[in-house]
Design brief:
single chain; about 425 residues; mainly beta; Tumor Necrosis Factor Receptor, subunit A, domain 2; two-stranded antiparallel sheet; 1 helix; 35 strands
């Protein structure tokens, strides 16, 4: 009986498998159990296995095709390289394609993990790709993160539709620039990014505008770095496109305010021209060129109740002149009682008089001015808490600047 690993074939003189005992070695890729009669009866190793050496005698002598190779037929003596675009686990007789969304440019891959995810911004639609096709760019309006196998991926892993606030041209997302926002999904052109609305600001990639905060104002197209602060004399509630002027009787003395302060008593919240610091009032306080700049001490000749006091009385805010018969060289008066009564020998003929006492006009000849006289020629005699003044009485004479009438001398009279 022929031993295992041999056949009973007659030895061929000069052959590569010649032997002296009339037996032939079992060829590579095969195995020969005991009793095998000839090489034609040698049993080929199964698909997915191979044998590189001679004298195999059992199927266990056929080794599994190594990983990265494949053995496509029976009787393989030399495994073949696994081709590009495919992978071959151990024991393969047929290469397996790299899955959709991948490619592989090299040979001898052993597992699907060796396949490379399709490049971002592209998609790989076929099995077993060896390269990324540059013609297979992601569809406009979509993002391909990597590993995409279709031009419009929406699985959130390999890609998605272009989100609001962005636009997607060839698979990647570009955010709407700061100062603009995008309200549509699937946008593919920068033109869909709209300017941020008045009274709002927009950060880069915004899908909706953010309301402008109080203490700031936001013209159209604002972004966080460009929102503006209201100047002194202005304020801003939230959501405003321009700075708001403080109303008469209210003021701010610092920029960036959210509200205006009510003018206190003794001060005058004046309306002055923009760009000036002189507290002189505008000719027209409602004119656009005027702004509520600050609060100043109530000027001489006036008294200034608080804003609340005046408004509660149902009057528009104003400063009040000291009445005739009084004057004031002091500032910051809060009420009429603080106006100074016109002194003896003098006349205070105009409202809001701030003339120094020494420069007030003298009571006229033929009249007397004890105190509180509203006129150099007080035609009507007054003697009460408001003043004591009037024409020089009969039987008396009054020189200019008379405080008390003088009696006529003996032997004279006056009408």
């Amino acid at each position: 009986m022929t031993p295992a690993g041999y056949t009973a074939q007659t030895c061929i003189v000069g052959g590569s498998n010649t032997c002296s005992n009339g037996m032939t070695e079992c060829p590579p890729g095969h195995y020969c159990p005991a009793g095998t009669r000839s090489t034609s009866h040698a049993i080929p190793c199964p698909k997915g296995t191979y044998r590189a050496d001679v004298m195999g005698f059992d199927v266990i002598d056929c080794g599994l095709c190594p990983a990265g190779k494949y053995c496509p037929t029976t009787g393989v003596s030399a495994p073949q390289n696994c081709p590009a675009g495919k992978f071959c686990p151990e024991g393969s007789w047929e290469p397996q394609n790299c899955p959709l969304g991948t490619y592989l440019p090299t040979e001898n891959a052993v597992d699907s993990s060796d396949c490379i995810a399709c490049t971002a911004n592209f998609y790989c639609p076929t099995l077993g790709q060896t390269a990324v096709d540059p013609a297979h760019t992601c569809a406009k309006g979509f993002m391909c993160y990597g590993g995409a196998y279709r031009p419009e991926p929406t699985d959130l892993t390999t890609g998605d539709i272009c989100p609001k606030g962005f636009w997607c041209d060839v698979g990647s997302a570009t955010e709407c620039v700061a100062g603009k926002y995008g309200v549509f999904q699937g946008a593919y052109d920068i033109g869909v990014c709209a300017p941020c609305e008045k009274g709002f600001y927009c950060q880069g990639g915004a899908d909706e505008p953010i309301v402008c905060p109080a203490g700031y104002y936001c013209p159209e197209g604002s972004q966080l770095s460009t929102i503006q602060t209201p100047a002194v004399g202005y304020y801003n509630e939230e959501g405003k496109e321009d700075q708001q002027k403080c109303p008469l009787g209210q003021y701010t003395n610092a920029p960036g305010q959210t509200s205006c302060s009510n003018c206190e008593q003794g001060v005058w919240c004046n309306v002055i021209p923009v760009g000036y610091t002189d507290p002189a009032a505008c000719a027209d306080p409602s004119a656009p060129s005027c702004v509520q700049q600050s609060a100043f001490e109530c000027p001489a000749g006036f008294y200034c109740p608080s804003y609340d006091t005046i408004v509660d009385a149902g009057e528009p805010y104003h400063r009040v002149m000291c009445p005739v018969g009084t004057y004031s060289t002091q500032t910051a008066l809060t009420g009429v009682s603080e106006c100074t009564t016109c002194p003896a020998t003098k006349a205070c003929e105009k409202k809001g008089d701030s003339t120094a006492e020494a420069d007030l006009p003298l009571c006229a000849e033929g009249f007397f001015c004890k105190f509180g006289s509203p006129n150099r020629f007080p035609a009507t005699a007054v003697d009460d808490a408001s003043g004591k003044y009037g024409p020089c009485p009969s039987g008396h004479w009054c020189a200019e600047g008379t405080e008390d009438p003088e009696p006529c001398p003996a032997g004279t009279f006056s009408m």
